[in-house]
Design a protein that fits this description.
The chain is an alpha+beta fold. Helices cover about 30% and strands about 20% of the residues. It contains seven helices and 13 strands. A five-stranded antiparallel sheet has the order 7-13-12-11-10, with helices on both faces. The chain is flat and about 75 Å long. It starts with 16 loop residues before the first helix and ends with a strand.
């Protein structure tokens, strides 16, 4: 506020043109005008080692800054060195994060210090595909003419806990579904649990003292059969990482082709096929699908002579951001 300003004064406002002109014409600014000014330091930049004093001249419109400490040159250099060290450390951290990202490419993973962890994860993913009969390897010349051969790749990711600690290295073989064309797939819509159903579920559990369990189905999509004839190349780098027995380099010169028997991640029809497979199994087991939500399944019965009600919600909405569960069970 300008000197002499009072919001309760009945006189003309000191910010009016006439008042301002008279103030500036009558006197120049003085250090006394800054007695009530509070300087708040920036949270990320500390104040300089030596404060600069402002010398106010007798004339009105100019001022100069001079150092108040003759030895401030050394302190200034020290402060500059500290800032340079902080900037260098920040740049080094940024380069480290960029060098080893949580979702590296295959070449980055194999060149990183965690190479062995990535190779173990890739071998485990290939074992999942082989154990579930997801594909059948065949020669490229045996593929019927006119059939499009899709490409695939490894998607790698570091899984961390709530504190940011590395839990495991995860690898997925994913088909490039963007290469699919209409006719390669049928319906693709797969529902998820609505937020209204989740709220009711939590309210019922709290009110009745029931127990909620969260479950995760490992390699869920690999459990559903594929109805269409789909062919794909093994992912690029598979032979280089795991050996020549697992295919070529993923290019057009590759001789090995996979004929998919089950839905693989990346296919447009994969979510719907998995939903239909699980729903068919639950209904056959005795669950009843709710009319209000296609992802709500209820099983009524007895256990040790007492009535029991099991309620299953699947799949878990991705918008909630949890990767630990893909279903919720209320008992």
């Amino acid at each position: 506020e300008p000197p002499g300003y009072s919001p309760l004064s009945s006189a003309a406002s000191p910010m009016s043109p006439s008042t301002c002109s008279s103030e500036h014409s009558s006197r120049a600014a003085s250090p006394a005008d800054l007695d009530d000014v509070v300087v708040v330091p920036h949270p990320h930049y500390p104040p300089p080692a030596a404060a600069a004093a402002v010398t106010w001249p007798e004339d009105s419109e100019s001022y100069s800054e001079t150092s108040s400490d003759a030895g401030s040159d050394d302190e200034g250099r020290t402060s500059a060195d500290a800032r340079a060290a902080r900037q260098e450390a920040s740049l080094e951290r940024a380069m480290t994060v960029q060098a080893i990202p949580d979702e590296p490419t295959l070449s980055q993973a194999l060149a990183s210090p965690d190479r062995e962890h990535w190779l173990t994860a890739m071998a485990a993913e290939l074992h999942n595909l082989e154990s579930t009969g997801t594909f059948r390897a065949m020669n490229r010349s045996d593929v019927p003419s006119g059939c499009k051969i899709l490409r695939s790749k490894f998607v790698l990711r570091v899984k961390r806990d709530d504190r940011g600690e590395v839990v495991r290295h995860k690898a997925r073989i994913v088909v490039l579904g963007c290469q699919q064309e209409p006719g390669d797939y049928g319906q693709t819509y797969a529902p998820v649990v609505t937020m209204q159903t989740l709220r009711v579920m939590f309210a019922v559990a709290v009110q009745n003292g029931l127990t909620l369990y969260g479950y995760d189905c490992t390699a869920a999509f690999l459990n559903s059969e594929l109805k269409e004839d789909i062919y794909c190349y093994p992912p690029s780098g598979l032979s280089a990482a795991l050996g020549p027995d697992y295919g070529g380099d993923g290019g057009d010169s590759q001789h090995t082709v996979w004929k998919l028997q089950r839905t693989l991640y990346g296919l447009k029809q994969a979510p719907k096929n998995w939903h239909d497979t699980l729903a068919e199994f639950l209904v056959g087991y005795g669950f009843r699908r709710a009319a209000s939500d296609p992802c709500l399944f209820v099983l009524e019965g007895t256990e040790q002579g007492e009535p029991r009600v099991h309620i299953l919600l699947w799949p878990w909405p991705p918008s909630l951001g949890t990767s630990a569960w893909n279903s919720l069970w209320l008992r």
